[in-house]
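Researcher: I'd like a candidate sequence for this fold, 82 residues long. If you have to choose between options at a position, lean toward the conservative one.
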């Protein structure tokens, strides 16, 4: 299930973004601060290049590039956003 980032409480979204940018394997080789990396990822969410995926089986949420989201799920999500 795809969740619009605007539906999350500010603190919840911030925690999700911080978790994403501090995971192993996310070091981009630049000396960007945590705040800068979070801002970059937030912009990707705003442009709908990254999406929040909620996994009802586990109750977890993750970020996924839109190219990795099943087309029918993406179509329905984007239609609901317009």
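Model: Candidate sequence:
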């Amino acid at each position: 299930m795809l969740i619009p980032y605007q539906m999350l409480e500010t603190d919840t979204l911030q925690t999700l973004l911080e978790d994403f940018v501090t995971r192993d394997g996310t070091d981009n080789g630049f000396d960007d601060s945590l705040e800068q990396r979070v801002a970059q990822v937030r912009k990707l969410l705003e442009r709908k290049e990254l999406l929040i995926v909620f996994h009802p089986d586990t109750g977890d949420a993750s970020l996924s590039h839109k190219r990795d989201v099943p087309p029918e799920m993406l179509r329905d999500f984007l239609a609901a956003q317009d």
